[in-house]
Predict the structure of Trehalose-6-phosphate synthase.
Amino acid sequence: MSKLVVISNRVAVPKARGVAGAQGGLAGALNSALKEHRGIWFGWSGEECDEYTGSINIQRNDGVTTATMDLPKQDVDEYYNGYANSTLWPLFHYRIDLTEYEREFGKGYERVNERFAESAAPLIEPDDMVWVHDYHLLPLGERLRARGLDNRIGFFLHIPWPPTRLFVSLPFHERLVETMLHYDVLGFQTGEWLESFLHYCRKELGATVDEATGRVEYQGRVTYAKAYPIGIDFDHLTAQGKTEEAKIAGEKLLSSTRDRIAAIGVDRLDYSKGLPERIDGLARFFDQNPDRVRDLVYIQIAPPSREDVESYQKIRNELEQKTGQINGARSEVDIVPIRYVNRGHSLAELCGFYRTAKICLVTPLRDGMNLVAKEYIAAQDPDDPGVLVLSRFAGAAQQMQEAVLVNPHSPDDLSHAIKTALDMPLKERKRRYDALIKTVRDDNVQDWTKNFADDLAMLGKN
Ligand code: ADQ
């Protein structure tokens, strides 16, 4: 019987939900997928070793088999902190100004992808389906093919695909995309990123592209590219929202905000999430509505991430400074307008916070999808739902048009959206919630997995 082999940079076991959350949406989504399919999840352990040995550590946890390998420090510096997080991540989030084009990073990236292929190949049997995840492993499919694997191999990109004009600034961009065309199925979060990818294939590679079906033919191989918007594990989240832990967290927030409305933001501390811009928007709101400092308290939950990368240290400092400035200018003895919490929380606690907060600000400058937007809606009380303020530039905005949509670069737009949310009558809150909950509940992570796996099974053998 064939099995599913999932390969991603990191592996997170189901129990470590708090940790998984801090690592990003990928972990939470895959836990559900792996429980459903008899499968193996392979990736880097997160540990550094003195020398690469190729040995892997296999564990069985809660119905999921995980296999991990350690990487030497040079690999972590060049592949993970380097090419993945200092080159591809900023470039794919349209931040060409932050993108570092170091030759050594590229070499490390190729070397580690080869190590992934070498260690994963023995785990893969002839009929298995292989599902590779995210920007760390774009060339892995080609590396596995070079080892003689003709399995169905699919790839899903969790982050945006940039417009061709930005992408061509990457040295060896053709080579990178050529390696991707060794996958059978390529998944993107939204039609927008898919369109950019197909445009690149046609314009820069001269591939034969059928936009209607996503069929890309290049050098005798066929790949199908399609959009699969990721969702949340709705049932799991709803269950977490009913726990005692969620109740206590919600009550704690409520009692500490007293008669003020709580607005919340929950983001990894990342420049793509538009955090300083959000604080500017709040400052503008308080400037334009000085009498409302007593109405609103904003809670920003932002666990640090990728702290070895310089641009992440900068964003942390910038956020701390901005929060300090606005609190310095606006606080009263009994009032602090912004609370900044620099750590992770369990999903149950987050659910409690989401339900208590009457406004959620999800305002990334660019985001593949953004699961916080969906989690917030899922956690609401249907009889008294809160308001989601959502960036137009998050992938989630394509499915969530009934949110209050904003341009996160504009402090005036943000200020206006906050005011709209604060003053929104119950009837309109309910109307918007009823539309939003539908997509959050129906287009969930189980569907996402099934859609991708079904397509891989069906389209993969070409
Ligand atoms: P991320 O950039 O990490 O994921 P997102 O989709 O918002 O972004 O997922 C974050 C996850 O981390 C959420 O599930 C959230 O609950 C959790 N989280 C955030 N702060 C937390 C905290 N303080 N404590 C605990 N958990 C916390 C990438 C892409 C996204 C895409 C996902 C999934 O960048 O665009 O939506 O993958 O594909």
